[in-house]
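Technical note accompanying the year-one report. For the benefit of new consortium partners, we illustrate the data format agreed upon in the data management plan: each record pairs a sequence with a structure-token string. No post-processing was applied to the example shown here.
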Amino acid sequence: MREAFRAGTPKSEHTRALILETALGLFREHGYDGTTMRAIAQRAGVSVGNAYYYFASKEHLVQGFYDRLAEEHRAVAAEALRGVPDLGERVRIVLTTWLDVAEPYHGFAAKFFKNAADPSSPLSPFSAESKQARESVIELHRLVLTGSKLRYDAEIERLLPEMLWLHHLGIALYWAHDKSPRTERTRRLAERTAGTVARVARISKYKVVRPLVREADALLREFLISEPDPDRDPASDPDQAAPPPAPESADPAPRPALGPASSG
């Protein structure tokens, strides 16, 4: 599978960001299934070939959004975690900073989750295609554990971050459908469960609990997290099939996007 985007000059990065912001705006207006790559290109003021040049499919656009959200969250959370040794407080910080970073996208989050809820979908957080964003968040939860005043053996330090990530996913799913003002119910849920999760993490270092952690990890890997499928052909979906990439020098002058950043 081709790379999700092409890096290069500032102009090319600007064009890529424009296409992504435009796609997010259209996803919010029409849903994922109701948006085509042609419509995204037209709204962004680029050719269809250029849209495919930066993102090989709609799936890659959503993955680009996942990656950007994970990157922004990691930067904000890592700064907020500095000098905080208490595990419960560290779990709370990671969850509430994610809610802060994700808030601008709440309007269409439920539409994304409609597709992401299917475990076989490339948009699922458990899919092989979501691996980069997933591992970024898991690594952040590893930082939550290793930066606390508690110490675990190597096996538990390897297994627990994925358990914390599953809790994070549950919070994200609740948030996507939360209609309370500023998603206050989700924030209260994050606040209240952070301490519980921290207590479970604390007792997991005891040998009597360790088999349960191992079993949870085994179930996660066997039934949820997917490995790359070498037989999957993205060209089998006519809307996902990408034409030959356009040369980078063919970038047109971009027009402002009607995406979340500009439409509020």
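Partners are asked to follow this layout when depositing records. The chain is about 60% helix and 0% strand.
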